[in-house]
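Just scan this pair:

***
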Amino acid sequence: MSLEVTFLGTGSAYPGPARAASALALRREGHCWLFDCAEGTQTQLMRSHLKAGRITKIFITHLHGDHFFGLPGLLCTLSLQSSPDPNKPPVDIYGPLGLRSFIWRTLELSHSQLLFPYVVHELVPTRDQCPAEEFKDFSSLDKDEASSGEAQGRIIHLDPVENSYLLVDDEQFVVKAFQLFHRIPSFGFAVEEKPRAGKLNVQKLKEIGNYFDFFFLPS
């Protein structure tokens, strides 16, 4: 298995002509996971060797514009490049509480209809992740979306024992989110590969067996 990390943007506040704002892609076995999606991310994807259509998961660290304002545009571009497929699995999007409402309202107001399904999984922050005066409770924003017929995804709370949020747990990887302190609630993401059995070339071991026996025979 190979993992490849591509920095699509490392700037902050706004994109520049030579340096885009925050976005990072992790490619694994033909799939692409995107971490943050600032304005201009889809342009950076076009300039890279990555294929945006391979994106299956998107992770948003926090709801400052320079980390997620590019998301609605990217989703619409992916839709323009797609064909209707009822069997296509949804794009999983993970981010702070309020992200689902932002995506739904943006697509609704712009009359944008995606040709592929998406599901937003929201992380519930705690009040100690930002200054008290900056904390806002967005738990009531999902009322309109609940009646829209869109798949709702999970509401993920902090595991007090692990002190993390479990996002993905498949045969190969575990992805967890961790609390970060910022001006607004923020999260870091950890991608952990599960232990897997190594592969032994039995024939090669037999061929070199006599070599090891020669040097390591007990005296």
In short: The longest strand covers residues 173-180.
